[in-house]
Amino acid sequence: MALRNTRILLREFERKSLNTLAASPVVLGSVTTSVTAADPCSFDLTTPVTTKAASPTEEDTTTSEKARRSEINLDFNDGKKLFSSVTTGKLIRSMLNQQMASYEPIVDVGIKVMRSRLVETMIVKDFIMSMVKHTFYDHFCAGENLDEAKKTLQKLWNGGLKGIMDYGLEDATDNASCDRNYNEFLKIVETTKLLPPSSVSYACVKVTAICPISLLKRVSDLLRWEHKDSSFHLPWKVDTLPMLADSSPFYHTMSRPNHLTPSEEYDLHQAHQRLIKLSEKCLESKLPLLVDAEYSSVQPAIDYLTYSTMIRINRDGNRIVHGTIQTYFRDAKERLIQATEAAEKMGVTLGLKLVRGAYLSSESQLASSLGFPSPIHRSIQDTHACYDECASIMLEKVAQGTGAVVLATHNIESGRAAASKVESLGLEKSSEKVQFAQLKGMADGLSFALKNAGFQVSKYLPYGPVDMVIPYLLRRAEENKGLLSASTFDRQLMSKEVTRRLKAAVTPSTSQ
Ligand SMILES: Cc1cc2nc3c(=O)[nH]c(=O)nc-3n(C[C@H](O)[C@H](O)[C@H](O)COP(=O)(O)OP(=O)(O)OC[C@H]3O[C@@H](n4cnc5c(N)ncnc54)[C@H](O)[C@@H]3O)c2cc1C
């Protein structure tokens, strides 16, 4: 039944997409007329991409924002220059995939099927995996193994972008799987040495893949309890930066947790050693390392391991280990400020990747199931403001020589605000300590515009067998569905450029 529905939806989608492709960019743009009234593709530096109606005071802010932004040359208008390294075939495929990802009924049915027991049937599984492989997977992932990922990286590099290699491992359950995953991460660092110099900007690791997830939960509980009760002593705890703030949610740990057993302490030590050794390898190869952030039930333990490793490695001006702050959390800014202050006192370079966060619905659902308010900002505007404030604080730390930041976002306004701040602080645009990053298959327009303006820009390149990266693809599907998703603006830019190329092919004399 679900499969039949999927087929019907796919047919409907195909029909709509063909109509869309045949249409002019204005027709494509009309899909999102709620974003902007005029030609949606004609964005310039002073056109805020916002759905919010401006109040008089907001209008004032917008005017001063405009003046500030006009210093920045992020050019989205020249599609020819923007997508000069992308073939027309690739542009069309990207548009189709993004359009399919934004079509809610397809995504909803797809997600239901992937999470259902249907995928346990071999024939259904093969069919679904093959469909996913030729659509979402090819769009969002870099390949099934490191060799394929290297080819994707080479294409990016030819277009002036760098890559962040990310082996798509999800949660580990025991020490044996942690060791296997650790060896895969090491392989990435080793392989980087054989790639064109600086084509890879960072290696990337998930602590949930090198420490058993149940242990991360236990350690997070203990850290939360220690934050609440200073007399609660954790004998295994080493020097670290603050991971929790008074505004952090504590509903995960409602009663005093038992202390770690000797075998749990041993496993924690092992996990810490894996992260330390990986960071030392990165230090040897001068390859910075990004530690991903996950869900709040395990994040305190991830931050604990990351910050304590950072204290050992990011000394003497080294900026190797980077943690991640998810700015959709209401306590994000307080935690970030605490970490910057503590790092400064210790003489440690604080490396951070800033994201909005990818587990929005599960975080809210967990809080609500326990009878607590969501830990996420009440409105998306609050999340945007938090992201921009955290970015601003980190850029100031870079200017003072005490921080390094990766601005991981697809949001045009956040990209522009950060780019303006870099200029106003007088930082080198090409500084290695300030880098922008987007996911493969998302916000290519922003990536190229930032690169053309002189910034360091990377694409996150997840790779691995199709069934292994399904959780990642489900998160991307959630993120991209809906007409106002992050990919809308990108589709408009690509559509405009495809139309320009098609017109140029038909009437060569007017192609310039
Ligand atoms: C290089 C890179 C690395 C990443 N690493 C991580 C990681 O380690 N951990 C992780 O969790 N994510 C990670 N992400 C994913 C990232 O969190 C999502 O891509 C991000 O949420 C999309 O936001 P944006 O900055 O692109 O902004 P936008 O395109 O403006 O997206 C806004 C998104 O914010 C969400 N949102 C946040 N707060 C609210 C709110 N209060 N109300 C409604 N919606 C809200 C919505 O779902 C919406 O999709 C990474 C992304 C990149 C590019």
Automatic annotation (TrEMBL):
Cellular-component GO terms for this entry: mitochondrion
Residue span of region Disordered: 48-69
Keyword field contains Transferase: no
InterPro entries: FAD-linked_oxidoreductase-like (IPR029041), Proline_DH_dom (IPR002872), Proline_oxidase (IPR015659)
Keywords carried by this UniProt record: FAD, Flavoprotein, Oxidoreductase, Proline metabolism
GO molecular function, one term: proline dehydrogenase activity
EC number: 1.5.5.2
GO biological process terms, semicolon-separated: L-proline catabolic process to L-glutamate
Protein name listed in UniProt: Proline dehydrogenase
The species this protein was found in: Papaver somniferum
Lineage: Eukaryota, Viridiplantae, Streptophyta, Embryophyta, Tracheophyta
